[in-house]
Amino acid sequence: LERLWGAGPLHGINTVVTAGPTYEALDPARGFTNRSSGKMGYALAAALANQGAAVTLISGPTALPAPAGVRRIAVTSARQMRDAVWACRGAMDLFVAAAAVADYRPQTVLADKLKKDADTLTVTLVRNPDILAEVAALTPRPFTVGFAAETGDVETKARAKRARKGIDLIVANPIDEAGVGFAGDDNRVILIDKDHAGAWAAAPKTEIARALVREIIKRLPRTAS
Ligand code: CTP
Ligand code: CA
């Protein structure tokens, strides 16, 4: 097989995958984070490596082991994740943003643990960098894949997000549905490119990851046949 298939269809494709949540500290004991197990991003990193890609997985805090054959860089905050991605920008053919990045962080990180002195507490949050949008604005830009966890009219919101961010593919998933998304092993997605949206049946995240990799391979300029 090795000889028939060479080293896989993604051989030589430098790939960066972000996964997991980010954590934005407020004080030494507390912070703000997003719900994300990291399972979808880790499954994608593994599936990409299985097809021969050189994969760097830039991961926020998760309980998952690094997939075999993948270089993992552990980060905590959105800004650390951005810096780690940015360091890879010179050699990035494919970027997959599966992380649930915190959109905001506390404006100031307190050196001492906050005491419950007052009845109400107001925290000022400031915007974090949009890692996916920054990568999509590179020239030349890698083939870029984003995710969109949405409620309500998922497809319409995700179509608009793909166009706004100027990315090649967006993987939309409803998060207001029982049994799929977040912590679970299953996911239900709608794959959207510039001229088509296709809803997939609910399936294990590992299976969805393999199918997404097939769709990426079909569309990648260097591997299209
Ligand atoms: N993303 C990112 N950096 C951010 C925020 C999001 O790289 N600071 C990426 C996510 O990894 C995902 C995509 O952008 O692939 C969409 O994230 P999402 O939160 O759905 O979109 P936002 O642009 O943050 O918009 P909003 O949260 O307002 O819907
Ligand atoms: Ca967001």
TrEMBL record:
GO molecular function, one term: FMN binding
Described function: Catalyzes two sequential steps in the biosynthesis of coenzyme A. In the first step cysteine is conjugated to 4'-phosphopantothenate to form 4-phosphopantothenoylcysteine. In the second step the latter compound is decarboxylated to form 4'-phosphopantotheine. Catalyzes two steps in the biosynthesis of coenzyme A. In the first step cysteine is conjugated to 4'-phosphopantothenate to form 4-phosphopantothenoylcysteine, in the latter compound is decarboxylated to form 4'-phosphopantotheine.
Reactions accelerated catalytically: (R)-4'-phosphopantothenate + L-cysteine + CTP = N-[(R)-4-phosphopantothenoyl]-L-cysteine + CMP + diphosphate + H(+); N-[(R)-4-phosphopantothenoyl]-L-cysteine + H(+) = (R)-4'-phosphopantetheine + CO2
Limits of the DNA/pantothenate metabolism flavoprotein C-terminal domain: 10-218
Pathway where it operates: Cofactor biosynthesis; coenzyme A biosynthesis; CoA from (R)-pantothenate: step 2/5; Cofactor biosynthesis; coenzyme A biosynthesis; CoA from (R)-pantothenate: step 3/5
Residues that, per the record, bind CTP: 103, 113, 129-132, 147, 161, 165
Keyword field: Decarboxylase, Flavoprotein, FMN, Ligase, Lyase, Magnesium, Metal-binding, Multifunctional enzyme
Classification of source organism: Bacteria, Pseudomonadati, Pseudomonadota, Gammaproteobacteria, Acidiferrobacterales
Family: In the N-terminal section; belongs to the HFCD (homo-oligomeric flavin containing Cys decarboxylase) superfamily. In the C-terminal section; belongs to the PPC synthetase family.
Region of interest (Phosphopantothenate--cysteine ligase), residue spans: 15-225
E.C. no: 4.1.1.36, 6.3.2.5
Taxonomy, superkingdom: Bacteria
UniProt-listed GO biological process terms: coenzyme A biosynthetic process; pantothenate catabolic process
Residue ranges the record marks as coiled coil: none
Name used for this protein in its record: Coenzyme A biosynthesis bifunctional protein CoaBC
This protein's record includes keyword Metal-binding: yes
Cofactor binding: number and manner: Binds 1 FMN per subunit.
GO cellular component, one term: phosphopantothenoylcysteine decarboxylase complex
Cofactors, names only: Mg(2+); FMN
